[in-house]
């Protein structure tokens, strides 16, 4: 009986810890340096291998959105460069605290939740990102799951044309964009491409039943989106021969 009570108490404590972490910590991540400096991350880096090349000087008084391209299947490069110290992020970009953003659903299971939080990873939602911007810089892959469908070896396809939300967010927060391109991200896996088919669900990310579609109207957003795309193409063009 005593044993069962102890087990029950431990289970209750574990559930409470998970709930508290989910409600409080998920919006910012824990960011412990000792986890970021694990030796296993160096082996992870050398397996591919992965390098971090900085081409710009960053001001400590500014917040930055590191837009990572392409997304790939698992975005190994983004995690290794921003979620760990294996490639020397803090030494190459001192004073900037990186936070990767991923789907909120990834935080709903206890063990994956702790794993993600330990790397300073936060949910890619407005509440979490607003909090991060009030403290430090952040990183995100604009294309997301849609772009991962195009990660075919030998091709560099970026889902960016209709992704303007990150531009609006940066303008509202007064943050700067940083174009980050990972050469070789699409070479990690071979993907079986299924033929497209058309259908219509009850709900989607853009509409809720009879509610009209939400459309961005601001000309300023389109202007800065164009400038970002132009800069990204220029960056890729400069480094294609050196990748």
From TrEMBL:
Alphabetic keyword roster: Acyltransferase, Cytoplasm, Endoplasmic reticulum, Glycerol metabolism, Lipid biosynthesis, Lipid droplet, Lipid metabolism, Membrane, Transferase, Transmembrane, Transmembrane helix
Gene Ontology cellular component annotations, sorted alphabetically: endoplasmic reticulum membrane; lipid droplet; perinuclear region of cytoplasm
Catalytically driven reaction(s): 2,3-di-(9Z)-octadecenoyl-sn-glycerol + (9Z)-octadecenoyl-CoA = 1,2,3-tri-(9Z-octadecenoyl)-glycerol + CoA; 1-O-(9Z-octadecenyl)-glycerol + (9Z)-octadecenoyl-CoA = 1-O-(9Z-octadecyl)-3-(9Z-octadecenoyl)-glycerol + CoA; all-trans-retinol + an acyl-CoA = an all-trans-retinyl ester + CoA; 1,3-di-(9Z-octadecenoyl)-glycerol + (9Z)-octadecenoyl-CoA = 1,2,3-tri-(9Z-octadecenoyl)-glycerol + CoA
GO MF, one example: retinol O-fatty-acyltransferase activity
Pathway where this protein functions: Glycerolipid metabolism; triacylglycerol biosynthesis; Lipid metabolism
Enzyme Commission number: 2.3.1.20, 2.3.1.76
The protein's name: Diacylglycerol O-acyltransferase 2
């Amino acid at each position: 009986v005593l044993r069962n009570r102890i087990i029950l108490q431990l289970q209750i404590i574990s559930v409470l810890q998970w709930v508290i972490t989910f409600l409080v910590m998920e919006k910012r991540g824990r960011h412990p340096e000792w986890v970021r400096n694990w030796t296993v991350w160096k082996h992870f880096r050398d397996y591919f291998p992965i390098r971090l090349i900085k081409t710009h000087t960053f001001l400590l008084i500014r917040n930055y959105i590191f837009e990572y391209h392409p997304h790939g299947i698992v975005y190994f490069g983004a995690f290794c460069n921003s979620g760990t110290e294996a490639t020397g992020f803090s030494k190459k970009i001192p004073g900037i605290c990186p936070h990767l953003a991923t789907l909120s659903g990834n935080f709903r299971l206890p063990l994956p939740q702790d794993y993600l939080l330990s790397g300073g990873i936060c949910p890619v939602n407005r509440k979490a990102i607003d909090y991060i911007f009030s403290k430090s810089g952040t990183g995100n892959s604009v294309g997301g799951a849609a772009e991962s469908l195009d990660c075919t070896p030998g091709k560099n396809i970026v889902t960016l044309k209709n992704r303007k939300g990150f531009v609006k967010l940066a303008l509202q927060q007064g943050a700067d964009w940083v174009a980050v391109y990972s050469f070789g991200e699409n070479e990690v896996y071979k993907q079986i491409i299924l033929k497209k088919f058309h259908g219509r669900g009850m709900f989607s990310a853009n509409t809720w039943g009879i509610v009209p579609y939400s459309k961005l109207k601001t000309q300023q957003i389109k202007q800065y989106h164009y400038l970002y795309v132009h800069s990204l193409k220029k960056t890729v063009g400069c480094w294609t021969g050196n990748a």
